[in-house]
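Quick one, probably user error.
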């Protein structure tokens, strides 16, 4: 895949919003940065993990904070370049390639911009296959790649380095720093080798992200119902990928709360013409679980996406509004995300749910 013009950037950002499952930060902010790099003739180079040397030095960059706050903050390409310079100085070596910590929302598009700016390849992979609210909720961490050192900077250049004994502690410390600096900072973290990326990443997610965004646009242009095209792309059981249209209705109630630099929320929807047919979606930065008339139909780590009912445009949590006509789509997580050791970290229990994980294809046969 290549990102060479504004349309490619918009398609990538749209796919990132879809895989952000409501959170991950509004990709529009990263879209503007990536678009500026493309207009300057600096194009991101996306490579497969098997193109890396085993001893290649790989790094992630990402935002940490509350998604609603992000839209009030400026994303400075100069800041991100300084962050990379400082991190290389701290590590004592140059970075050979970048990888997104999460493919959803701001972070995938922003990392593409940083890769273009620094003329570094970006690996077609990430650590989630979606977005999650905590930095330790990645396959890298599950399989023993430490997040530390985590270098943190805000848009004013304030900087901190977190060195912790485990990634949950790194998250706690980073979140506290984020809260003290306006609930939105940027970080460089998860220094890894090429071998670790090959073994532990969720692969082919940059290309999937771009394909989803392009599919939504082309389906709007060519089909009466854009959801037909989206489901045709994503529901491929022969490839182990399952997608379901879970609900069609309108938002009738919204509860939002910013707490500890996270965006918590509950979204209640009614089916068109039937107020007794109700879906409730729960979120912590990202949409975590959906219950249709009290029955669970999707749960983490499987993906849950809320889209505009007419255009299939993904809607982030902070942009939901009372009365919006929406459709809810569920998508199976990547196979690595469903392994027992991964479910122990970012399955339902990791978010306080008592339920055992059940795949979307079993909940919605």
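Nope, works fine. Designed sequence:
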């Amino acid at each position: 895949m290549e990102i060479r013009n504004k349309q490619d950037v918009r398609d990538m950002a749209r796919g990132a919003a879809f895989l952000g499952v409501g959170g991950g930060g509004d990709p529009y902010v990263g879209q503007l940065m990536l678009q500026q790099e493309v207009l300057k003739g600096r194009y991101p180079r996306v490579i497969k993990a098997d193109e890396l040397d085993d001893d290649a030095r790989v790094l992630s960059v990402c935002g940490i904070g509350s998604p609603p706050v992000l839209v009030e903050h400026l994303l400075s390409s100069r800041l991100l370049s300084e962050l990379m310079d400082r991190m290389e100085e701290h590590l004592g070596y140059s970075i050979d390639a970048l990888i997104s910590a999460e493919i959803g929302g701001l972070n995938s598009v922003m990392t593409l911009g940083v890769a273009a700016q620094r003329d570094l390849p970006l690996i077609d992979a990430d650590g989630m296959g979606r977005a999650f609210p905590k930095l330790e909720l990645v396959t890298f961490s599950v399989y023993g790649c430490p997040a530390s050192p985590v270098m943190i900077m805000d848009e004013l250049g304030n900087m901190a380095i977190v060195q912790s004994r485990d990634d949950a502690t790194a998250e706690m410390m980073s979140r506290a720093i984020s809260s003290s600096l306006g609930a939105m900072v940027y970080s460089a973290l998860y220094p890894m080798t090429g071998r670790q990326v090959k073994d532990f990443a969720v692969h082919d997610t940059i290309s999937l992200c771009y394909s989803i965004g392009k599919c939504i646009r082309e389906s709007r242009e060519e089909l009466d119902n854009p959801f037909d095209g989206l489901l045709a792309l994503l529901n491929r059981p022969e490839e182990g990928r399952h997608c379901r249209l879970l609900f069609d209705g309108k938002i009738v109630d919204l509860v939002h709360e910013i707490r500890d630099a996270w965006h918590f929320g509950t979204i209640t929807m009614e089916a068109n013409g039937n107020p007794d047919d109700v879906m409730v979606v729960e979120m912590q930065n990202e949409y975590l679980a959906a219950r249709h008339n009290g029955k669970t139909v999707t749960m983490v780590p499987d993906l849950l996406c809320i889209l505009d009912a007419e255009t299939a445009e993904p809607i982030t949590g902070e942009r939901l509004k009372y009365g919006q006509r929406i459709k809810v789509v569920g998508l199976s997580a990547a196979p690595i995300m469903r392994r027992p050791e991964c479910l122990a970290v970012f399955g339902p229990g990791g978010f306080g749910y008592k339920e055992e994980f059940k795949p979307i294809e079993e909940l919605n046969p």
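The chain has a mean pLDDT of 94.
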